[in-house]
Design goal:
Blueprint lengths: L4 E2 L2 E5 L2 E5 L7 E7 L2 E11 L2 E6 L11 E8 L1 E4 L7 E2 L15 E4 L16 E2 L4 H4 L4 E2 L3 E6 L5 H11 L4 E9 L1 H13 L6 E7 L4 H20 L3 E7 L1 H14 L13 H9 L3 E2 L5 E9 L8 H9 L2 E6 L2 E2 L5 E2 L13 H23 L6 H18 L7 H15 L9 H7 L12 H4 L6
Parallel strand pairs: 9-15, 13-18, 13-19, 14-15, 14-16, 16-18
Antiparallel strand pairs: 1-7, 2-3, 3-6, 4-5, 4-7, 5-6, 8-10, 11-12, 17-18, 19-20, 19-21
Length: about 450
Amino acid sequence: MMRKYYDEITRIAGNVVTVSAKGVGYDELAVITSERGTSLAQVIRLEADQVSLQVFAGTQGVSTGDKVRFLGHPMQVPFCDEMLGRVLDGSARARDERPELKGDMIEIGSPAVNPIKRRRPDRMIRTGIPMIDIFNSLVESQKLPIFSIPGQPYNELLARVGLQADAEIIILGGMGLRHDDYLTFRRTFEEGGVLGRTIMFIHTAADPVVECLLVPDLCMAVAENFALQGKRVLVLLTDMTAFSDALKEIAITMEQIPSNRGYPGDLYTQLARRYEKAVDFDGAGSVTLLACTTMPGDDDTHPVPDNTGYITEGQFYLREGVIDPFRSLSRLKQQVNGETRDDHRVVMNAGIQLYALCRESREKREMGFEMSKWDNKLLSYGAMFEEQIMDLRVNIPLEEALDRCWEILAKCFEPEETGMRRVIIDAHWPKEHAVLEQAPPEAETIGAGT
């Protein structure tokens, strides 16, 4: 049924138009007809008969005499198998100069899946990155953020995970991306041969703010429908801080009372609505979510990472180009790493404990204390661990990574010095490796002159 036009536009502020109308729903789409043509808008606030709409293309050329027609439904996206290999914008329009998609229209922003329809997460997603696979395993249906600071290779890490992860469909949602970052993702997926099973929703800094807000909903809606078809879907979002800043910009335009650092008071709810869409359907597929959250000033008390930490099941901290082994955490790893190999948990625990002791020995060295033979062993271990395991360029399967950890341990320590159970040592200790007799060059002069 054709809906009536409203022409009582009472206010235009920024990219927000306020019109007097009745019978309108939140998130409903509208078309504004002006002299320049038609513009798509979305309802972002309802107050009595005053309806505020965020205009996708901006309000330039819109006047108070223009007509507004509400479409009676929220934002929709065409869903079809032809989406695979496509690059779309924040309004689900083609960005790759190919024909527009045609398919069944599905609504975005639907509620999270009923818990009784979910199954317990118990399947690991292999990534080929030892610091994830061994020490903080990624689990199907998990929601995990990557906490980082601008300038760190978080987009490169996301691209690596998308390229190597054991998933059937990859969905990338980019918010406020620079054009070269978008091209890097596309080139990585294309050269890696996974572009044909990838869908990209890309919003750049030059695109309308409202499209930034739509990207996570578009990604999760499409992912959910593929999961219902039995597909294992991995969603990559970057950057959720840009998404939150878009929320703040609109809240300021709407003259809402600001909360912490100017962000809207419902920031937690807005983030949770997206993160909670990660699900492992009972009898169908799954949606796993890995999202980057940049921390202004490297401050994890900033409202975005602070709220995110209460929602997600752990986090990866990306610092100095590596995943921080002490601050990173996957709260679901214990549900899968006991099913991989009998030595997985033992290597995970011993590897981190010894690296922590290495950090203490480095502090002793920096303070000028004399180094013991044990300290020198720890320093040797730490150097090898960082080069062969922590380096994000390392790309090996889980089993090979575990074997490499054993080789590093055997080169640096006696079996009894590792603190591992004897039965595990007897089964996995590399007999052919001898223990280092001397300290590495970097440690030979440690303590000299003290």
